[in-house]
Amino acid sequence: MTAHNHTEQIPSAEQLLLSRGVKPTPQRVVIAEYLLQTESHPTADEVLSAVAQALPVALSRATVYNTLNTLKEAGVIKEVLTEPGRVRYDANITHHHHFVDVKTGKIVDIPSDKVEAIGKLLGDQYKVHGFQVLFYGEVESG
Amino acid sequence: MTAHNHTEQIPSAEQLLLSRGVKPTPQRVVIAEYLLQTESHPTADEVLSAVAQALPVALSRATVYNTLNTLKEAGVIKEVLTEPGRVRYDANITHHHHFVDVKTGKIVDIPSDKVEAIGKLLGDQYKVHGFQVLFYGEVESG
DNA sequence: TCATGTATTTAGAATAAGTCTAAAGTAAGA
DNA sequence: TCTTACTTTAGACTTATTCTAAATACATGA
User: Fold this and answer.
1) What is the ipTM of this complex?
2) Protein residues closer than 7 Å by CB to strand D
């Protein structure tokens, strides 16, 4: 599967993988391309069904999980935990937040600067039921 | 198992369940008591092993899950998602946030007012590697 | 007290997400 | 071409959770 640069603003998945030290195999490239182009925060299963038809050969479940873990470790994608029991993936690795629409289940990205003043309104477009800040870091013991 | 009010500041689990319309069976009371008294944000499995010895009879896994779901639906506890594949529970239902110590895996509560100015330091006690705001609500379609 | 109905608990089967394993495939270099 | 190292694969396995159907407990009315 050769690259056919259909859209200009999306960086080549191949380049991205190379720049992160990940060998751009066809499977990895197609999975990365899918994640870069979607805004749907898919699960591994959703990646599998979306990408399976784009590849000439069948794609195994194990490869999807292997690739997602490889891309995650290489910093190409991030995990998003919104619901119990499922992990979603996001190729937007800029510092941003997520807004879960409880009606539709859709997850949309919220740029970091939008929430600078937490507790204040996000804008008319969003009706916030609640939010949670999840910190990762270290506590000084003592 | 009769109540023996060993600590004053913790509200009686029995009262709490009754006030939320949950029938206070021995299993539910012991599970609620455990969650109210701990700060460890335990998983279902951790609840089971911690509580099993406190009950005169054996406690089944299904009852732990049933009870946790009942308590969650009644608003007595909340789910906390910090790692893929596991759900943790928190009986602190005030609006607060969580800080995951990546060294120890411990999750500590951060009161809401601490993070009013997101992006600024949480205080010397915490070394923040990153944080994520998780919103729940609705997007205006359009 | 006894029967009855309703809710709860239980053990274990079933499901779902993800990982592991061992074999087969692929590609590059000697 | 042969070797070596890595990747992909199918399917077995694990783990967390839910489901199911039977057993138990408990309250109420006769």
Assistant:
1) 0.81
2) A 23, 25-28, 57-63, 66-67, 84-85; B 43-45, 61-62, 65, 69, 85-87
Q: Is the Cβ pair A108, B82 closer than 8 Å?
A: no
Chain B hits for A103, CB-CB cut-off 8 Å, are: 138
pLDDT in tens, B20-40: 999 999 999 999 999 999 999
Return d(Cα A131, Cα A136) in angstroms, integer. Answer: 16
CATH of domain A13-90: 1.10.10.10
Question: Where in A1-142 does DSSP place strands (E)?
Answer: 78-83, 86-90, 96-101, 107-111, 126-139
Local confidence band at A25 (pLDDT 50, 70, 90 cut-offs): very high
Return the bridge partners of B80, or none: B88
Q: Using the structure block, give the residue that is written with the tokens 């490239």.
A: A29
3-state secondary structure at position B98: strand
CA proximity to B106, closest of B38, B6, B36 = B38
Look up tokens 């008294």; give the residue.
B37
What whole-number distance in Å separates Cα of residue B123 and Cα of residue A137? 12
Q: What is the pTM of this model?
A: 0.82
Residues of chain B with CATH 1.10.10.10: 13-90
Long-range contacts of B99-103 (CB under 8 A, 24+ apart): B99/A135, B99/A137, B99/A139, B99/B126, B100/A134, B100/A135, B100/A136, B100/A137, B101/A137, B101/A138, B101/A139, B102/A136, B102/A137, B102/A138, B102/B129, B103/A138
